[in-house]
Amino acid sequence: MMTSKEIMEVFRETNVLREGHFKLTSGRHSRQYLQCAQVLQYPRFTESLCQELARRFKGEEIDVVIAPAIGGIIIAYEVAKVLGTRSVFAERGEDGKMTIRRGFTIEDDENVLVVEDVITTGGSVNEVIQLVRERGGNVRGVGVFVDRSGGRIHFGVKTEALLSMEIQSYEPEECPLCKEGVPVYKPGSRKF
Question: How many domains, in total, are found in the chain?
Answer without folding.
Answer: 1
